Amino acid sequence: QVQLVESGGGLVQAGGSLRLSCAVSRRPFITYRMGWFRQAPGKERDFVAVIRWNDGLTSYADSVKGRFTISRDNAENTVFLQMNSLKPEDTAVYYCALDVKYTGSFSADYWGQGTQVTVSS
Asked: How far apart are CA 99 and CA 33, in angstroms?
């Protein structure tokens, strides 16, 4: 069983930065993708960013391009989300997810428990 454990959330002022981490208990396959999603109160869970584990290819939601960076550490089986220039509208519970498919639309096979990010104005 694959487990994802997020950390790094918290309270930050607008314009500040946070770095989220997601530790993967074991690699389920040789190739897979890791993604970050977020869910604000009363809203649906939205895509934030995705990275392909093997080659590091990334993709971002338009709302975070230029501000957020997704990366991974192969040795530590960990994916990161560096969030800069945070805005109050970034406030949400952030989830990491793992898709065992390497291509196509991202469809999570595993989810983390979520970590709260709150940005004050």
From this structure: 5
Question: What is the average pLDDT across 11-15?
Answer: 98
DSSP of 107-119: --SEE---EEEEE
Q: CA dihedral in degrees (93, 110, 59, 6; nearest 10)?
A: 40
pLDDT at 75 over 90: no
Q: What distance in Å separates the CA atoms of residue 26 and residue 45, rounded to the nearest whole number?
A: 25
pLDDT per position as a tens digit, 27-70:
777 778 999 999 999 999 999 999 999 899 999 999 999 999 99
Residue of 55, 116, 59, 109 lying closest to 91 (CA atoms): 116
Cα distances (Å, whole numbers) of residue 22 to 14, 42, 51: 23, 24, 13
Question: Can you spell out the DSSP letters for 65-90?
Answer: TTTEEEEEETTTTEEEEEE-S--GGG
